[in-house]
Protein 1
Amino acid sequence: MPDELAEVLDSAIYKEIASQAVYEAAQLKTEDPAAKELLKELAGQEVKHAEKLKALKERGLVKPQWHQDKIADLKVSDYLTGGGTLEGAGLQDALIFAMKREGESVAFYHKMMGMMRAEEAKQLCAGLANEELRHKMRLEILYDRLFYGND
Protein backbone atom coordinates (compact mmCIF):
# COMPACT_ATOMS: atom_id res chain seq x y z
CA MET A 1 0.00 0.00 0.00
CA PRO A 2 1.47 3.38 -0.96
CA ASP A 3 2.62 5.54 1.95
CA GLU A 4 0.01 8.25 1.40
CA LEU A 5 -2.85 5.74 1.47
CA ALA A 6 -1.51 4.24 4.69
CA GLU A 7 -1.15 7.74 6.14
CA VAL A 8 -4.75 8.62 5.27
CA LEU A 9 -6.06 5.36 6.71
CA ASP A 10 -4.00 5.72 9.90
CA SER A 11 -5.30 9.27 10.36
CA ALA A 12 -8.88 8.19 9.71
CA ILE A 13 -8.64 5.27 12.15
CA TYR A 14 -7.21 7.55 14.82
CA LYS A 15 -9.97 10.10 14.16
CA GLU A 16 -12.69 7.46 14.54
CA ILE A 17 -11.20 6.15 17.80
CA ALA A 18 -10.91 9.70 19.15
CA SER A 19 -14.53 10.42 18.21
CA GLN A 20 -15.65 7.24 19.95
CA ALA A 21 -13.85 8.37 23.12
CA VAL A 22 -15.42 11.84 22.90
CA TYR A 23 -18.93 10.42 22.55
CA GLU A 24 -18.37 7.91 25.37
CA ALA A 25 -17.06 10.63 27.69
CA ALA A 26 -19.94 12.90 26.72
CA GLN A 27 -22.45 10.30 27.93
CA LEU A 28 -21.18 10.90 31.47
CA LYS A 29 -21.80 14.64 31.22
CA THR A 30 -25.53 14.53 30.70
CA GLU A 31 -28.48 13.16 32.61
CA ASP A 32 -30.84 13.41 29.64
CA PRO A 33 -31.76 9.83 28.60
CA ALA A 34 -32.31 10.76 24.93
CA ALA A 35 -28.96 12.57 24.76
CA LYS A 36 -27.23 9.61 26.42
CA GLU A 37 -28.79 7.22 23.92
CA LEU A 38 -27.79 9.39 20.96
CA LEU A 39 -24.21 9.66 22.22
CA LYS A 40 -24.06 5.91 22.85
CA GLU A 41 -25.28 5.23 19.30
CA LEU A 42 -22.73 7.67 17.85
CA ALA A 43 -19.90 6.03 19.83
CA GLY A 44 -20.97 2.64 18.45
CA GLN A 45 -20.97 3.99 14.90
CA GLU A 46 -17.44 5.29 15.36
CA VAL A 47 -16.31 1.81 16.50
CA LYS A 48 -17.78 0.30 13.33
CA HIS A 49 -16.12 2.96 11.17
CA ALA A 50 -12.71 2.29 12.76
CA GLU A 51 -13.12 -1.46 12.23
CA LYS A 52 -14.06 -0.90 8.58
CA LEU A 53 -10.98 1.27 8.06
CA LYS A 54 -8.68 -1.24 9.81
CA ALA A 55 -10.00 -4.02 7.58
CA LEU A 56 -9.48 -1.82 4.53
CA LYS A 57 -5.89 -1.16 5.58
CA GLU A 58 -5.22 -4.86 6.18
CA ARG A 59 -6.55 -6.08 2.84
CA GLY A 60 -5.20 -3.13 0.87
CA LEU A 61 -6.91 -0.58 -1.27
CA VAL A 62 -6.71 -1.55 -4.92
CA LYS A 63 -9.19 0.99 -6.24
CA PRO A 64 -11.58 3.40 -4.55
CA GLN A 65 -14.24 1.47 -2.68
CA TRP A 66 -16.21 4.43 -1.36
CA HIS A 67 -19.53 5.48 -2.78
CA GLN A 68 -19.11 8.83 -4.43
CA ASP A 69 -22.77 9.80 -4.39
CA LYS A 70 -23.33 13.52 -4.15
CA ILE A 71 -24.31 14.20 -0.55
CA ALA A 72 -26.03 17.49 0.21
CA ASP A 73 -24.65 19.61 3.00
CA LEU A 74 -27.83 20.92 4.60
CA LYS A 75 -25.76 23.40 6.65
CA VAL A 76 -28.26 23.28 9.52
CA SER A 77 -25.49 23.29 12.11
CA ASP A 78 -23.75 26.22 10.41
CA TYR A 79 -26.47 28.51 11.72
CA LEU A 80 -26.93 27.04 15.19
CA THR A 81 -25.30 28.15 18.39
CA GLY A 82 -24.71 25.90 21.36
CA GLY A 83 -23.35 22.41 21.49
CA GLY A 84 -19.98 23.70 22.64
CA THR A 85 -20.15 21.68 25.84
CA LEU A 86 -22.12 18.64 26.79
CA GLU A 87 -22.06 19.33 30.51
CA GLY A 88 -25.72 18.94 31.48
CA ALA A 89 -26.74 18.94 27.82
CA GLY A 90 -30.09 17.81 26.56
CA LEU A 91 -30.83 16.13 23.25
CA GLN A 92 -30.82 19.39 21.28
CA ASP A 93 -27.34 20.41 22.42
CA ALA A 94 -26.05 16.85 21.96
CA LEU A 95 -27.29 16.88 18.37
CA ILE A 96 -25.73 20.29 17.70
CA PHE A 97 -22.45 19.06 19.19
CA ALA A 98 -22.50 15.93 16.99
CA MET A 99 -23.44 17.84 13.82
CA LYS A 100 -20.60 20.30 14.35
CA ARG A 101 -18.16 17.47 15.08
CA GLU A 102 -19.12 15.69 11.86
CA GLY A 103 -18.73 18.99 9.98
CA GLU A 104 -15.22 19.34 11.40
CA SER A 105 -14.44 15.85 10.13
CA VAL A 106 -15.63 16.77 6.63
CA ALA A 107 -13.34 19.82 6.69
CA PHE A 108 -10.44 17.71 7.99
CA TYR A 109 -10.66 15.24 5.09
CA HIS A 110 -11.04 18.02 2.52
CA LYS A 111 -7.93 19.68 3.89
CA MET A 112 -6.07 16.38 3.92
CA MET A 113 -7.14 15.75 0.31
CA GLY A 114 -5.43 18.98 -0.69
CA MET A 115 -2.16 17.81 0.85
CA MET A 116 -2.03 14.45 -0.94
CA ARG A 117 -0.13 13.87 -4.17
CA ALA A 118 -1.33 10.37 -5.07
CA GLU A 119 -4.69 10.28 -6.83
CA GLU A 120 -5.72 7.18 -4.85
CA ALA A 121 -5.08 9.02 -1.58
CA LYS A 122 -7.06 12.03 -2.81
CA GLN A 123 -9.97 9.76 -3.75
CA LEU A 124 -9.84 8.05 -0.37
CA CYS A 125 -9.95 11.43 1.38
CA ALA A 126 -12.90 12.46 -0.79
CA GLY A 127 -14.69 9.23 0.09
CA LEU A 128 -14.04 9.70 3.80
CA ALA A 129 -15.28 13.30 3.62
CA ASN A 130 -18.39 12.06 1.84
CA GLU A 131 -19.04 9.47 4.58
CA GLU A 132 -18.72 12.13 7.29
CA LEU A 133 -21.03 14.42 5.32
CA ARG A 134 -23.56 11.60 5.14
CA HIS A 135 -23.43 11.29 8.95
CA LYS A 136 -23.82 15.04 9.35
CA MET A 137 -26.80 15.06 7.00
CA ARG A 138 -28.54 12.28 8.96
CA LEU A 139 -28.07 14.22 12.19
CA GLU A 140 -29.30 17.43 10.57
CA ILE A 141 -32.42 15.72 9.24
CA LEU A 142 -33.10 14.27 12.70
CA TYR A 143 -32.59 17.71 14.25
CA ASP A 144 -34.94 19.29 11.75
CA ARG A 145 -37.64 16.69 12.42
CA LEU A 146 -37.34 16.87 16.19
CA PHE A 147 -37.07 20.60 16.68
CA TYR A 148 -38.82 22.08 13.66
CA GLY A 149 -41.36 19.37 12.96
CA ASN A 150 -40.30 19.09 9.31
CA ASP A 151 -40.60 15.74 7.59
Note: The chain has one domain: 3-148.
Protein 2
Amino acid sequence: MVSKVLVCLALALLAPASGARGERPATDIQQLGLEDLDPADAIQLTTKWLEQQDRRRLAWAAFWIERDDQFQRVPQLVDIVARYNSSAENPSSSSNWTDYDAALMAVLDALIYLHADVPINEAEALYGKFPVQALILLSRSHDDTEKPLLRILDKTTNFIDWLAAADLLAAKPPAGFAARLLKAIAINAALPLVCRGPFQRREPRRPPLS
Protein backbone atom coordinates (compact mmCIF):
# COMPACT_ATOMS: atom_id res chain seq x y z
CA MET A 1 0.00 0.00 0.00
CA VAL A 2 1.20 3.45 -0.85
CA SER A 3 2.22 5.25 2.32
CA LYS A 4 -0.47 7.30 4.01
CA VAL A 5 2.20 9.94 4.48
CA LEU A 6 1.84 10.73 0.77
CA VAL A 7 -1.91 11.17 1.15
CA CYS A 8 -1.47 13.44 4.14
CA LEU A 9 1.00 15.47 2.12
CA ALA A 10 -1.46 15.71 -0.74
CA LEU A 11 -4.22 16.89 1.58
CA ALA A 12 -1.87 19.44 3.11
CA LEU A 13 -0.98 20.79 -0.32
CA LEU A 14 -4.66 21.23 -1.06
CA ALA A 15 -5.44 23.00 2.21
CA PRO A 16 -6.26 26.72 1.79
CA ALA A 17 -3.76 29.28 3.03
CA SER A 18 -4.54 31.10 6.27
CA GLY A 19 -5.57 34.73 6.31
CA ALA A 20 -3.20 37.68 6.46
CA ARG A 21 -3.56 37.90 10.25
CA GLY A 22 -3.32 34.15 10.78
CA GLU A 23 -7.08 33.52 10.98
CA ARG A 24 -8.25 30.03 9.98
CA PRO A 25 -11.14 29.90 7.48
CA ALA A 26 -14.43 28.35 8.53
CA THR A 27 -13.72 25.27 6.39
CA ASP A 28 -10.39 24.48 8.05
CA ILE A 29 -9.92 20.72 8.45
CA GLN A 30 -9.09 21.02 12.15
CA GLN A 31 -12.29 22.97 12.80
CA LEU A 32 -14.49 20.56 10.86
CA GLY A 33 -12.67 17.46 12.09
CA LEU A 34 -12.76 15.87 8.64
CA GLU A 35 -10.07 13.31 9.43
CA ASP A 36 -12.16 11.86 12.29
CA LEU A 37 -15.56 12.44 10.72
CA ASP A 38 -18.17 9.85 11.64
CA PRO A 39 -18.44 7.19 8.89
CA ALA A 40 -22.16 7.83 8.38
CA ASP A 41 -21.53 11.53 7.82
CA ALA A 42 -18.49 10.76 5.71
CA ILE A 43 -20.55 8.57 3.38
CA GLN A 44 -23.02 11.40 2.83
CA LEU A 45 -20.26 13.90 2.09
CA THR A 46 -18.46 11.40 -0.14
CA THR A 47 -21.54 11.17 -2.36
CA LYS A 48 -21.58 14.96 -2.78
CA TRP A 49 -17.85 15.60 -3.03
CA LEU A 50 -16.76 12.87 -5.46
CA GLU A 51 -18.16 14.60 -8.52
CA GLN A 52 -17.27 18.17 -7.61
CA GLN A 53 -14.54 20.19 -9.28
CA ASP A 54 -13.03 21.11 -5.91
CA ARG A 55 -9.83 19.02 -5.83
CA ARG A 56 -9.51 19.32 -2.06
CA ARG A 57 -12.99 17.83 -1.54
CA LEU A 58 -12.21 15.05 -3.99
CA ALA A 59 -9.10 14.16 -1.99
CA TRP A 60 -11.10 14.03 1.25
CA ALA A 61 -13.76 11.85 -0.37
CA ALA A 62 -11.05 9.41 -1.47
CA PHE A 63 -9.60 9.46 2.04
CA TRP A 64 -12.95 8.43 3.56
CA ILE A 65 -13.47 5.74 0.92
CA GLU A 66 -10.18 4.17 1.96
CA ARG A 67 -10.66 4.68 5.68
CA ASP A 68 -14.19 3.26 5.77
CA ASP A 69 -13.70 0.46 3.19
CA GLN A 70 -16.31 1.88 0.83
CA PHE A 71 -15.81 -0.82 -1.82
CA GLN A 72 -18.98 0.27 -3.62
CA ARG A 73 -17.18 3.49 -4.61
CA VAL A 74 -14.46 1.72 -6.61
CA PRO A 75 -16.20 2.17 -10.01
CA GLN A 76 -16.49 5.91 -9.34
CA LEU A 77 -12.80 6.14 -8.46
CA VAL A 78 -11.89 4.26 -11.65
CA ASP A 79 -14.01 6.74 -13.64
CA ILE A 80 -12.12 9.61 -11.98
CA VAL A 81 -8.81 8.04 -13.05
CA ALA A 82 -10.10 7.70 -16.62
CA ARG A 83 -11.18 11.34 -16.69
CA TYR A 84 -7.81 12.40 -15.32
CA ASN A 85 -5.96 10.44 -18.00
CA SER A 86 -8.01 12.04 -20.77
CA SER A 87 -7.97 15.53 -19.29
CA ALA A 88 -5.98 18.40 -20.74
CA GLU A 89 -4.96 19.13 -17.14
CA ASN A 90 -2.87 15.99 -17.14
CA PRO A 91 0.46 16.82 -18.81
CA SER A 92 2.05 13.46 -17.95
CA SER A 93 5.38 14.54 -19.38
CA SER A 94 5.51 17.60 -17.15
CA SER A 95 7.21 17.53 -13.77
CA ASN A 96 4.98 20.32 -12.44
CA TRP A 97 2.70 19.20 -9.59
CA THR A 98 -0.90 20.43 -9.65
CA ASP A 99 -3.86 20.28 -7.28
CA TYR A 100 -5.39 17.71 -9.61
CA ASP A 101 -2.29 15.52 -9.26
CA ALA A 102 -2.41 15.81 -5.47
CA ALA A 103 -6.10 14.86 -5.37
CA LEU A 104 -5.54 11.92 -7.70
CA MET A 105 -2.81 10.62 -5.41
CA ALA A 106 -5.47 10.13 -2.73
CA VAL A 107 -7.73 8.42 -5.28
CA LEU A 108 -4.96 6.02 -6.32
CA ASP A 109 -4.08 5.28 -2.70
CA ALA A 110 -7.71 4.31 -2.05
CA LEU A 111 -7.82 2.08 -5.14
CA ILE A 112 -4.62 0.31 -4.11
CA TYR A 113 -5.74 -0.11 -0.51
CA LEU A 114 -9.06 -1.60 -1.64
CA HIS A 115 -7.28 -3.95 -4.09
CA ALA A 116 -9.30 -2.54 -6.97
CA ASP A 117 -8.91 -3.95 -10.47
CA VAL A 118 -8.18 -0.91 -12.67
CA PRO A 119 -8.23 -1.37 -16.48
CA ILE A 120 -4.69 -1.91 -17.73
CA ASN A 121 -4.87 0.96 -20.25
CA GLU A 122 -5.78 3.38 -17.47
CA ALA A 123 -3.09 2.01 -15.15
CA GLU A 124 -0.42 2.27 -17.85
CA ALA A 125 -1.47 5.84 -18.71
CA LEU A 126 -0.63 6.84 -15.14
CA TYR A 127 3.00 5.76 -15.46
CA GLY A 128 4.34 9.13 -16.62
CA LYS A 129 3.21 10.94 -13.46
CA PHE A 130 2.63 8.10 -10.99
CA PRO A 131 5.09 5.29 -11.87
CA VAL A 132 4.91 3.49 -8.53
CA GLN A 133 1.12 3.50 -8.41
CA ALA A 134 0.89 2.43 -12.07
CA LEU A 135 3.12 -0.60 -11.48
CA ILE A 136 1.18 -1.59 -8.35
CA LEU A 137 -2.15 -1.38 -10.19
CA LEU A 138 -0.76 -3.41 -13.10
CA SER A 139 0.48 -6.04 -10.66
CA ARG A 140 -3.06 -6.35 -9.25
CA SER A 141 -4.82 -6.58 -12.62
CA HIS A 142 -6.66 -9.75 -13.63
CA ASP A 143 -6.06 -8.96 -17.31
CA ASP A 144 -3.00 -9.75 -19.40
CA THR A 145 -0.45 -7.06 -18.52
CA GLU A 146 2.35 -8.37 -20.72
CA LYS A 147 2.24 -5.59 -23.34
CA PRO A 148 2.08 -2.59 -20.97
CA LEU A 149 4.81 -4.05 -18.77
CA LEU A 150 7.04 -4.67 -21.81
CA ARG A 151 6.51 -1.08 -22.93
CA ILE A 152 7.49 0.19 -19.49
CA LEU A 153 10.49 -2.15 -19.46
CA ASP A 154 11.68 -0.81 -22.83
CA LYS A 155 11.17 2.91 -22.20
CA THR A 156 11.93 3.47 -18.53
CA THR A 157 15.20 5.07 -17.49
CA ASN A 158 14.63 4.30 -13.80
CA PHE A 159 16.37 1.12 -12.67
CA ILE A 160 13.86 0.43 -9.87
CA ASP A 161 10.93 0.68 -12.30
CA TRP A 162 12.79 -1.51 -14.80
CA LEU A 163 13.46 -4.10 -12.10
CA ALA A 164 9.81 -4.07 -10.94
CA ALA A 165 8.48 -4.51 -14.48
CA ALA A 166 10.98 -7.29 -15.17
CA ASP A 167 10.06 -9.05 -11.94
CA LEU A 168 6.36 -8.98 -12.83
CA LEU A 169 7.07 -10.29 -16.33
CA ALA A 170 9.32 -13.05 -14.99
CA ALA A 171 6.30 -14.82 -13.49
CA LYS A 172 5.23 -15.69 -17.05
CA PRO A 173 8.10 -14.72 -19.37
CA PRO A 174 7.01 -13.57 -22.83
CA ALA A 175 8.86 -14.44 -26.03
CA GLY A 176 12.16 -12.59 -26.26
CA PHE A 177 12.15 -11.71 -22.55
CA ALA A 178 15.68 -13.04 -21.92
CA ALA A 179 17.03 -11.05 -24.89
CA ARG A 180 15.47 -7.87 -23.49
CA LEU A 181 17.16 -8.45 -20.16
CA LEU A 182 20.54 -9.13 -21.73
CA LYS A 183 20.20 -6.03 -23.89
CA ALA A 184 20.04 -3.89 -20.77
CA ILE A 185 23.12 -5.46 -19.19
CA ALA A 186 26.52 -3.85 -19.75
CA ILE A 187 29.70 -5.63 -18.69
CA ASN A 188 32.79 -3.53 -18.00
CA ALA A 189 36.15 -5.19 -17.45
CA ALA A 190 39.63 -3.80 -16.80
CA LEU A 191 42.51 -5.97 -18.07
CA PRO A 192 46.18 -5.39 -17.14
CA LEU A 193 48.36 -4.25 -20.04
CA VAL A 194 51.08 -6.82 -20.74
CA CYS A 195 53.94 -5.42 -22.84
CA ARG A 196 56.29 -7.79 -24.65
CA GLY A 197 57.97 -5.18 -26.86
CA PRO A 198 61.67 -4.32 -27.10
CA PHE A 199 61.42 -1.66 -24.39
CA GLN A 200 60.17 -4.06 -21.75
CA ARG A 201 62.51 -4.16 -18.77
CA ARG A 202 64.17 -7.48 -18.36
CA GLU A 203 65.95 -8.89 -15.35
CA PRO A 204 69.67 -9.53 -16.00
CA ARG A 205 70.59 -13.13 -16.62
CA ARG A 206 72.56 -14.81 -13.86
CA PRO A 207 75.42 -17.10 -14.72
CA PRO A 208 74.73 -20.74 -14.02
CA LEU A 209 76.07 -22.10 -10.76
CA SER A 210 79.31 -24.08 -11.20
Note: DSSP finds eleven helices and no strands in the chain.
Protein 3
Amino acid sequence: MIRLLPGVATLVAKTLRLKIKGGLPDRCIVIFWHGKMFAGWYSLTIPKQLLATFQPVALVSASKDGDILTGVMQRWGYKVERGSSSKSGLAALERAIARVRKGECRRIVITPDGPRGPIHRLKRGAFLAAQELQLPIYFLRIHYRRAKTLEKSWDKFEIPMPFSSVHIKVEKIDMSGFPNEMHAQHEWLNRLASEMNL
Protein backbone atom coordinates (compact mmCIF):
# COMPACT_ATOMS: atom_id res chain seq x y z
CA MET A 1 0.00 0.00 0.00
CA ILE A 2 2.80 2.43 0.90
CA ARG A 3 4.34 1.94 -2.54
CA LEU A 4 1.07 3.13 -4.09
CA LEU A 5 0.98 6.42 -2.16
CA PRO A 6 3.18 8.49 -4.52
CA GLY A 7 0.91 7.57 -7.42
CA VAL A 8 -2.29 8.20 -5.46
CA ALA A 9 -0.99 11.54 -4.15
CA THR A 10 -0.06 12.59 -7.68
CA LEU A 11 -3.50 11.69 -9.02
CA VAL A 12 -5.19 13.79 -6.31
CA ALA A 13 -2.74 16.68 -6.76
CA LYS A 14 -3.41 16.87 -10.50
CA THR A 15 -7.11 17.48 -9.85
CA LEU A 16 -6.51 20.49 -7.60
CA ARG A 17 -7.48 23.91 -8.91
CA LEU A 18 -4.63 26.14 -7.82
CA LYS A 19 -5.19 29.88 -7.68
CA ILE A 20 -1.88 31.61 -7.05
CA LYS A 21 -1.50 35.25 -6.11
CA GLY A 22 2.04 36.53 -6.57
CA GLY A 23 5.17 34.86 -7.86
CA LEU A 24 8.69 33.83 -6.98
CA PRO A 25 12.13 34.67 -8.37
CA ASP A 26 14.03 31.71 -9.77
CA ARG A 27 16.50 31.64 -6.82
CA CYS A 28 14.95 31.82 -3.35
CA ILE A 29 14.01 30.01 -0.17
CA VAL A 30 10.36 28.91 0.12
CA ILE A 31 8.50 27.97 3.31
CA PHE A 32 4.97 26.86 4.20
CA TRP A 33 3.46 25.23 7.27
CA HIS A 34 3.88 21.48 7.73
CA GLY A 35 0.12 20.92 7.81
CA LYS A 36 -0.24 22.53 4.37
CA MET A 37 2.60 20.64 2.72
CA PHE A 38 0.47 18.71 0.21
CA ALA A 39 -0.33 21.71 -1.96
CA GLY A 40 2.85 23.51 -0.91
CA TRP A 41 5.17 20.87 -2.32
CA TYR A 42 3.07 20.28 -5.41
CA SER A 43 2.58 23.93 -6.36
CA LEU A 44 6.32 24.43 -6.85
CA THR A 45 6.63 21.73 -9.49
CA ILE A 46 3.73 22.43 -11.84
CA PRO A 47 4.80 23.41 -15.37
CA LYS A 48 3.54 26.81 -16.55
CA GLN A 49 2.50 27.90 -13.05
CA LEU A 50 3.91 31.17 -11.72
CA LEU A 51 5.77 29.33 -8.96
CA ALA A 52 7.32 26.62 -11.06
CA THR A 53 10.03 25.69 -13.59
CA PHE A 54 13.16 25.40 -11.38
CA GLN A 55 14.04 22.12 -9.72
CA PRO A 56 13.93 22.62 -5.94
CA VAL A 57 15.69 20.79 -3.14
CA ALA A 58 13.53 19.87 -0.15
CA LEU A 59 14.40 19.03 3.44
CA VAL A 60 12.54 15.94 4.62
CA SER A 61 12.54 14.17 7.97
CA ALA A 62 14.69 11.06 8.45
CA SER A 63 11.67 9.30 10.02
CA LYS A 64 9.50 6.53 8.55
CA ASP A 65 6.94 9.17 7.56
CA GLY A 66 9.80 10.90 5.77
CA ASP A 67 10.40 7.72 3.77
CA ILE A 68 6.86 7.94 2.41
CA LEU A 69 7.14 11.68 1.72
CA THR A 70 10.46 11.18 -0.06
CA GLY A 71 8.80 8.81 -2.53
CA VAL A 72 6.18 11.44 -3.31
CA MET A 73 8.73 14.25 -3.55
CA GLN A 74 11.00 12.39 -5.92
CA ARG A 75 8.04 11.56 -8.14
CA TRP A 76 7.28 15.29 -8.24
CA GLY A 77 10.84 16.12 -9.34
CA TYR A 78 12.47 17.22 -6.10
CA LYS A 79 15.98 16.64 -4.93
CA VAL A 80 15.65 15.52 -1.32
CA GLU A 81 17.95 15.93 1.67
CA ARG A 82 17.03 13.91 4.75
CA GLY A 83 17.56 14.94 8.35
CA SER A 84 15.92 15.34 11.74
CA SER A 85 15.57 18.54 13.75
CA SER A 86 18.86 17.71 15.53
CA LYS A 87 22.42 17.54 14.17
CA SER A 88 21.44 15.50 11.10
CA GLY A 89 18.97 18.26 10.24
CA LEU A 90 21.78 20.82 10.19
CA ALA A 91 23.84 18.50 7.97
CA ALA A 92 20.88 18.13 5.59
CA LEU A 93 20.50 21.91 5.46
CA GLU A 94 24.21 22.28 4.66
CA ARG A 95 23.88 19.75 1.83
CA ALA A 96 20.89 21.63 0.43
CA ILE A 97 22.83 24.91 0.57
CA ALA A 98 25.71 23.21 -1.25
CA ARG A 99 23.35 22.09 -4.03
CA VAL A 100 22.27 25.69 -4.56
CA ARG A 101 25.87 26.92 -4.53
CA LYS A 102 26.78 24.34 -7.19
CA GLY A 103 23.82 25.34 -9.35
CA GLU A 104 22.17 21.91 -9.06
CA CYS A 105 19.05 23.50 -7.58
CA ARG A 106 17.75 27.05 -7.45
CA ARG A 107 15.34 26.86 -4.54
CA ILE A 108 15.36 25.35 -1.07
CA VAL A 109 11.91 24.39 0.20
CA ILE A 110 11.29 23.86 3.93
CA THR A 111 8.36 23.35 6.30
CA PRO A 112 9.73 25.53 9.11
CA ASP A 113 7.59 24.07 11.91
CA GLY A 114 8.49 20.47 11.00
CA PRO A 115 9.18 17.70 11.39
CA ARG A 116 7.68 17.47 14.90
CA GLY A 117 6.41 20.93 15.78
CA PRO A 118 5.28 22.82 17.73
CA ILE A 119 2.70 23.77 15.13
CA HIS A 120 3.24 27.14 13.43
CA ARG A 121 6.48 27.84 15.31
CA LEU A 122 9.37 28.89 13.11
CA LYS A 123 12.69 27.08 13.34
CA ARG A 124 15.87 28.74 12.15
CA GLY A 125 16.89 26.52 9.22
CA ALA A 126 15.23 28.33 6.33
CA PHE A 127 16.34 31.70 7.67
CA LEU A 128 19.94 30.58 8.15
CA ALA A 129 19.94 29.30 4.56
CA ALA A 130 18.55 32.61 3.29
CA GLN A 131 21.23 34.48 5.24
CA GLU A 132 24.02 32.16 4.11
CA LEU A 133 23.06 32.25 0.42
CA GLN A 134 21.92 35.89 0.44
CA LEU A 135 18.59 34.84 -1.06
CA PRO A 136 15.09 36.17 -0.41
CA ILE A 137 12.68 34.04 1.58
CA TYR A 138 9.00 33.63 0.76
CA PHE A 139 6.05 32.23 2.70
CA LEU A 140 3.19 30.47 0.90
CA ARG A 141 -0.12 31.13 2.67
CA ILE A 142 -2.29 28.18 1.62
CA HIS A 143 -6.04 27.71 1.98
CA TYR A 144 -8.03 24.68 0.78
CA ARG A 145 -11.66 25.14 -0.17
CA ARG A 146 -12.36 21.54 0.85
CA ALA A 147 -10.03 19.36 2.89
CA LYS A 148 -9.92 16.61 5.50
CA THR A 149 -8.08 17.66 8.68
CA LEU A 150 -6.28 14.98 10.66
CA GLU A 151 -7.18 16.34 14.08
CA LYS A 152 -4.97 13.91 16.01
CA SER A 153 -1.80 14.84 14.12
CA TRP A 154 0.46 17.45 15.77
CA ASP A 155 0.31 19.68 12.67
CA LYS A 156 -3.44 19.28 11.99
CA PHE A 157 -2.43 17.96 8.59
CA GLU A 158 -4.87 18.82 5.82
CA ILE A 159 -5.56 16.51 2.89
CA PRO A 160 -7.30 18.43 0.10
CA MET A 161 -10.32 16.79 -1.45
CA PRO A 162 -10.02 15.92 -5.15
CA PHE A 163 -10.92 18.87 -7.41
CA SER A 164 -10.81 21.30 -4.49
CA SER A 165 -9.83 24.90 -5.11
CA VAL A 166 -6.54 25.87 -3.46
CA HIS A 167 -5.70 29.52 -2.84
CA ILE A 168 -2.00 30.30 -2.46
CA LYS A 169 -0.75 33.76 -1.58
CA VAL A 170 2.98 34.39 -1.98
CA GLU A 171 4.39 36.66 0.74
CA LYS A 172 7.98 37.91 0.85
CA ILE A 173 9.49 37.96 4.33
CA ASP A 174 11.54 40.96 5.38
CA MET A 175 14.89 39.55 6.58
CA SER A 176 16.46 42.94 7.26
CA GLY A 177 16.04 42.67 11.03
CA PHE A 178 17.18 39.05 11.39
CA PRO A 179 19.79 39.09 14.22
CA ASN A 180 23.08 37.20 14.40
CA GLU A 181 22.83 35.92 17.99
CA MET A 182 20.93 32.64 18.45
CA HIS A 183 18.70 33.69 21.37
CA ALA A 184 17.74 36.89 19.58
CA GLN A 185 17.00 34.87 16.44
CA HIS A 186 14.50 32.71 18.33
CA GLU A 187 12.74 35.78 19.72
CA TRP A 188 12.64 37.37 16.27
CA LEU A 189 11.20 34.19 14.75
CA ASN A 190 8.53 33.93 17.46
CA ARG A 191 7.38 37.48 16.70
CA LEU A 192 7.33 36.75 12.98
CA ALA A 193 5.32 33.54 13.48
CA SER A 194 2.73 35.47 15.47
CA GLU A 195 2.39 37.97 12.62
CA MET A 196 2.16 35.18 10.01
CA ASN A 197 -0.65 33.49 11.94
CA LEU A 198 -2.85 36.59 12.13
Note: Residues 48-53 have pLDDT under 50 and may be disordered.
